[in-house]
Amino acid sequence: MSSVRRKRVVVLISGRGSNMQALIAATMDPAFPGQIVGVIANRPDAPGLDTARRHDITAIAVDQKAYENREAHEAAVLDVLAGLDPDIVCLAGYMRLLSATFVLRYSGRLINIHPSLLPLFPGLETHERALAAGMRIHGCTVHFVTERMDEGPIIAQAAIAVEAGDTAETLSGRLLAAEHRLYPHALRLVLDGTVRMTNGRAILERRAPAAEAPDGPVESPRMLVSPDARRG
């Protein structure tokens, strides 16, 4: 009896790749519906490359400084990706803006984790901005990547409380723990077909009880929070 094929996942990083490590840990379970077949970094000194190699994962640096412009570098990354033949590409602290060409190539198969409850606080310095706005909750979002930065359809979110005396550093540290639980959860939802992107929206496939015939997909809710992530 043949086993079910696990889908191929490639992770793009720029630094230590702590969310990448959470994905690696999750995919070490043979029951997880995907396996990480490659890690690509835009910096050859990214510590996450060594982490991937210690887990016998192909790790490739495509040094952005070796190319004359973003287009040339991105074309090289796309060539490496083509060789790895991913079903899903995960951005995990990849600090490069992606062109429309790149995004469209992997439309519906490219996901990212962002440290805020989107659509609040897209871009950088999310923790500082949440504190400055007087937020009482903060969080993280996994979303499909589209041509507009941090505006893709939401797959899953997790929230944490903003505590008295929090700084950007303390808030970031607590949120990171929630990110490490949320990203594998969201990746599983995409890999097993529970959530997919259709016509620019995240669609949640309704799972009917065994005695009830399924009646098609429904639009995904804005919040799909892992039970574990609630404890972040």
UniProtKB/TrEMBL annotation:
Stretch list, region Disordered: 207-232
One of the Pfam families matching this protein, by short name: Formyl_trans_N
Chain ranges passing through the membrane: none
The keyword Transcription belongs to this UniProt entry's keyword annotation: no
Alphabetized GO MF terms: phosphoribosylglycinamide formyltransferase activity
Site entry: Raises pKa of active site His: 150
Signal peptide positions (record): none
Catalytic activity: N(1)-(5-phospho-beta-D-ribosyl)glycinamide + (6R)-10-formyltetrahydrofolate = N(2)-formyl-N(1)-(5-phospho-beta-D-ribosyl)glycinamide + (6S)-5,6,7,8-tetrahydrofolate + H(+)
Active site (catalytic residues): 114
GO BP of this protein: 'de novo' IMP biosynthetic process
Pathway: Purine metabolism; IMP biosynthesis via de novo pathway; N(2)-formyl-N(1)-(5-phospho-D-ribosyl)glycinamide from N(1)-(5-phospho-D-ribosyl)glycinamide (10-formyl THF route): step 1/1
Keyword entries, A-Z: Purine biosynthesis, Transferase
Gene3D superfamilies tied to this protein: Formyl transferase, N-terminal domain (3.40.50.170)
Residues in Formyl transferase N-terminal domain copies: 7-187
Positions that bind N(1)-(5-phospho-beta-D-ribosyl)glycinamide: 17-19
Annotated positions binding (6R)-10-formyltetrahydrofolate: 70, 95-98, 112
Source organism superkingdom: Bacteria
GO cellular component: cytosol
EC number: 2.1.2.2
Family from the record: Belongs to the GART family.
Described purpose of this protein according to its UniProt entry: Catalyzes the transfer of a formyl group from 10-formyltetrahydrofolate to 5-phospho-ribosyl-glycinamide (GAR), producing 5-phospho-ribosyl-N-formylglycinamide (FGAR) and tetrahydrofolate.
Protein known as: Phosphoribosylglycinamide formyltransferase
Gene name in the database record: purN
